[in-house]
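User: Here's a chain of 563 residues. Predict its fold as tokens.
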Amino acid sequence: MIELQLDDVLYNSGILGLCRVFDFVKLPYDSDGQTVTFPESNLSNFEEHYFASLVDLYGSETSYYKMVNTYSKQFVKKCIKGITEEKELEQFNTLIDNMKRWLTSNSYKNVYPFLTEISYDFEASAKAFKKVNKKKKETLEDVQPQVTAMAQELLECLSFLEHEQAKRYIVPRILSYQVIQGFWSNVSLLNSNASKKDLYVEYDNYFIRAAKNYLETKNDEKKYAKSKLTCACCDNKMKSATEAFDLTWVQKVGVDAARKSSHYWDHQRDIFICPICNIVYSCIPLGFTLVRGAGLFINNNRSIDDLVSVNSISLKVGKVEVSRDDLESMAYYQLLDLMAQQAENQKLLEIDNIQIVKYDRNSESRPYTFNMLSREKAQQMYDSRKDFQFLVGKYVKENGEYVSLYQEVLRRFYNGQSFADLLYRLMRLVIDDDFKGMASIHKILNISNNRFKGREHFMTQEELRKIRISGYYLKQAYRGQEAKLNAISYRLLNALKVKNPNKFMDTIFQAYSYKKNEKLSIPTFFIQGLNDIEKFQTIGYAFLIGLNGYEKSEDEKEDTTNE
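Assistant: Prediction complete.
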């Protein structure tokens, strides 16, 4: 039996990836606390299981599936029968361009020699694909024969692409660059000399065979007892450095001892990992949950079961495409659900050591960012879970660029930063009539206020509702005087920006005095903010939200726009 224990964050993501492979092919393993145990037989055909799991998770994001999906095939079949719109011809030519580009790329060409069961020359056929160009005087009926002929060629190509052997080699090779290379490189199938070799053989040679050979020597107890080198990740021992591995092949991790021995005491390398842990690290890409180059891993290291449970985020939500915000939101909801379940079972949740690890393939200098979710922050997020969920997929256009409100709020929440600057920017856009998402601003204010729960700065939802309604009543008093109302809003907003309660109150007195015939009295709640800057800003923005027309309590239906 092979036994592994949770360790650092990347090692834990590797263990999770390993468990996901076992789960996918239904191989046995036992989890007991922070320890996972599995039979050595699980390593048989592991290379097949590894890539099958990878394809199952991320194959749908590859160019291969963009060609062979049901919609593409149905569209090509329709083109054979006849196209009826100019847009269909444009779409048809785009498909030709894409297939030609993909099928003649190195990722595809390097695996064609292994497609021994397919009697079709993908590269030669792709090079012969030609777009159908319609001249000005021609009609769609005039070019239909060309469309039909080309569509038949595309359909024939697609039928061969659907062959199981094509899928077996093409998709893993694409994913090796699209997914794996972001986490590890330079060895095995990603060695610079292995691009034209069988990736299954390369993975087996570098990872699996070394592990099997090691396990054979380990079973000889007398020889194993004499081993002096200890694995840095587990208790396994090795007889010499030739049997060990380093971590230079894991992206942004480890030191190349051959080139930078000065990183070690007396220039002697003293950090080794065993062949078993080498396999674990190769499973890191399967431990993260990825969406188009962005990924998350929740390092809940209390137990193997908790690690698997909290990271069990499905990327296959019907036919809806999961966005980066959706991914992050679902990850946190998994964690919050775990909190709720443990609370119901009257278990104490030790959440202080949970790391939220974000991965970005496009960031070469810093692909990993780490956030610690403390018990306090987890509780705050749980209290604001509906507000966070509402912000998923909400964007604001600022200076010509779209900004994700969810990400802006989450970043401030993690770093313990004030939300005042974001509330100011959004309210400024509202007053300038460049943003309609008042409900989103209301949600952000709720999240900001919930951080103070249990402290003197906190205000109840009922208090905030009364403040918003007071602002809304003042707006009604200025009906037909929008320019005057905007001027009041600007002055109030600027007072909030510089945290000046006196300037804010001067504007409030003037605004109410101007409408004294409306029988509106200045609300007493403003007094609460005179000596409490945090409460002053909460009151001020709640009032501004109402002053600019928002007084709903069932606000989920209010903010349907993304701008």
